[in-house]
């Protein structure tokens, strides 16, 4: 295990934090919060304060809604081609500045620089994809079955959207919402996670440079999201809420949105099974698992959480996989040699410790890792457990860290039942050389997304989302992403 922790960062401002850390981005201007509060941004690798941002209040929320309302009609009426060109320019600027954005993500989030680079590329792609889709929004025209009238269906922007994003993918979770909303013709208010606000503000400056008009995108950080978001959802001009985060918080937001019957998209928790059958290519399955488990050090809703390996190959698989996990280099996200960065907070490490301790108390064996690392930073090592009891807490909770529990299984029916034994249904992974078996099992696993002989499931061109307690609606895809931000208007006419 290699750990290389930096104790400090240079005094200069390589990311241009000073240009936006002193104000909320509302109505195309950087402005102070109504109160005097500040939110400190912590480098998870060193526990050092790297910046602070304004702490928005309910008054700031009202100002953001006012700004979005002022800009909404102009953006809605802008020709789709012009909106498309602005979105395309957002994509181009993100690509041009990808290294700077990646380093900023690594600094405030802690993720390995290689993962941050991948996130920026993925995040930028939402602008390119939706730039292309913005000019393809069309309606419907037909004759009513009775022949008495024509049916005209027009798709219109839903209105002002409140977007709430998590800390684990500070660029991609924002662009996955902002890009389709803008393509649809909506003005938005983004509330990024207070742990990773700097990327959101940096992107706001980039959108302005790309030509997004003032007020179309507003960004505000707050340490009191409950009352701030409730104030926005209580405003009749707000018609959409799109949230990515935990299922628990999602339930509370759904209840708040119900008061004014606001349309909701919810991308919530996951507990993804990773199923490896006896006939799988073991090396390919391990490569896929390294992606599915260790992308962003396991801090992803799509992360492989429960790894089921058929008994015929279980021991060989466990041995090879453990060697790969134990060899990963742990260190600061900004270090180019790092393969596994820190967790986001001390609380996140404590949760992982609790889950591992509980699993061990129920009979699990540790093949590598298993204890948090000493020193500064919120580090936890890549960990592999075997003989894990299905009754362990980590069998039903999201681990959100670099811990891989392996479960042995015998039959196809057994593993399908185990995979579905969860309230979640976001993603699942299957490895087998038998494509018929793979498709059969995929059809029976209750999840919104299935990766068959692949360790990566996310794609801007595919609908992202889950079933059961993993959410409502879809993000991305040919029509799904934009459709979440539009409403159908039916017009009956005769001529």
How would you summarize the topology of this molecule?
Layout: E1 2-3, E2 24-26, E3 29-31, E4 38-42, E5 49-54, H1 58-77, H2 80-96, H3 98-109, H4 113-133, E6 140-143, E7 150-157, E8 160-164, H5 172-184, E9 188-191, H6 198-210, E10 217-219, H7 225-233, E11 238-244, H8 247-258, E12 263-267, E13 272-276, H9 282-294, E14 304-310, H10 314-326, E15 329-330, H11 346-361, E16 365-368, E17 383-386, E18 403-409, H12 412-419, E19 427-431, H13 435-444, E20 449-452, E21 471-472, H14 480-483, E22 486-493
Parallel strand pairs: 1-15, 8-9, 8-11, 9-10, 11-12, 13-14, 13-19, 14-18, 17-18, 19-20
Antiparallel strand pairs: 2-3, 4-5, 6-7, 7-22, 12-21, 16-17
Helix pairs in contact: 1-7, 2-4, 2-6, 3-4, 4-5, 9-10
Explain how this protein is built:
A seven-stranded mixed beta sheet has the order 16-17-18-14-13-19-20, sandwiched between helices. Strands 10-9-8-11-12-21 form a six-stranded mixed beta sheet, with helices on both faces. Residues 1-12 have low confidence and may be disordered. The radius of gyration is 23 Å and the shape is globular. With 495 residues, it is of the alpha/beta class. It has helices at 58-77, 80-96, 98-109, 113-133, 172-184, 198-210, 225-233, 247-258, 282-294, 314-326, 346-361, 412-419, 435-444, 480-483, and strands spanning 2-3, 24-26, 29-31, 38-42, 49-54, 140-143, 150-157, 160-164, 188-191, 217-219, 238-244, 263-267, 272-276, 304-310, 329-330, 365-368, 383-386, 403-409, 427-431, 449-452, 471-472, 486-493. β9, α6 (198-210) and β10 form a beta-alpha-beta unit. The longest helix is centred in the first third of the chain and has 21 residues, at 113-133.
């Amino acid at each position: 295990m290699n750990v290389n922790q930096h104790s400090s960062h240079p005094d200069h401002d390589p990311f241009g934090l000073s240009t936006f850390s002193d104000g909320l981005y509302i109505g195309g201007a950087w402005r102070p919060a109504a109160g005097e509060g500040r939110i400190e941004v912590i480098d998870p690798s060193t526990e050092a304060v790297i910046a602070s941002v304004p702490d928005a209040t309910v008054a700031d929320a009202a100002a953001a809604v006012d700004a979005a309302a002022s800009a909404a009609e102009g953006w809605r009426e802008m020709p789709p081609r012009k909106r498309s060109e602005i979105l395309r320019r957002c994509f181009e600027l993100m690509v041009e500045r990808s290294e700077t954005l990646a380093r900023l993500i690594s600094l405030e989030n802690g993720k390995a620089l290689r993962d941050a680079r991948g996130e920026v590329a993925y995040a930028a792609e939402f602008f390119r994809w939706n730039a292309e889709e913005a000019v393809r929004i069309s309606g419907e025209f037909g004759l009513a079955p009775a022949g008495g009238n024509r049916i005209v269906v027009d798709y219109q922007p839903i209105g002002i959207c409140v977007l709430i994003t998590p800390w684990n993918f500070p660029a991609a979770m924002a662009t996955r919402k902002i890009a389709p909303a803008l393509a649809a013709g909506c003005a938005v208010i983004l509330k990024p996670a207070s742990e990773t606000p700097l990327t959101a503000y940096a992107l706001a400056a980039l959108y302005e440079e790309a030509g997004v008009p003032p007020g179309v995108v507003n960004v505000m950080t707050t340490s009191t999201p409950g009352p701030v978001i409730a104030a926005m959802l209580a405003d009749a001009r707000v018609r959409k809420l799109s949230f990515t985060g935990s299922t628990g918080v999602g339930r509370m937001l759904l209840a708040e949105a119900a008061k004014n019957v606001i349309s909701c998209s919810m991308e919530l928790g996951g507990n993804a099974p990773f199923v490896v059958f006896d006939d799988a290519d073991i090396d390919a399955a391990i490569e896929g698992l390294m992606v599915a488990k260790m992308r962003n050090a396991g801090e992803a809703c799509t992360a492989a959480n429960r790894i089921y390996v058929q008994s015929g190959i279980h021991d060989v698989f466990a041995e090879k996989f453990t060697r790969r996990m134990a060899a990963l280099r742990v260190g600061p996200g900004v270090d180019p040699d790092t393969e596994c960065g820190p967790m986001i907070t001390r609380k996140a490490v404590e949760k992982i410790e609790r889950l591992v301790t509980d699993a061990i108390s129920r009979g699990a064996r540790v093949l590598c890792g298993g204890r948090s690392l000493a020193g500064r930073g919120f580090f936890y090592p890549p960990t592999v457990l075997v003989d894990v009891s299905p009754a362990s807490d980590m069998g039903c909770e999201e681990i959100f860290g670099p811990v891989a529990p392996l479960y042995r299984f015998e039959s196809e029916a057994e593993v399908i039942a185990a995979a579905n034994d969860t309230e979640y249904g976001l993603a699942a992974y299957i490895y087998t050389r038998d494509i018929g078996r793979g498709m059969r099992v995929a059809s029976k696993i209750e999840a919104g997304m299935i990766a068959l002989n692949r360790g990566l499931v996310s794609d801007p061109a595919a609908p992202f989302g889950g079933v059961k307690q993993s959410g409502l609606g879809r993000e991305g895809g040919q029509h799904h992403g934009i459709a979440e931000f539009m409403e159908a208007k039916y017009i009956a006419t005769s001529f």
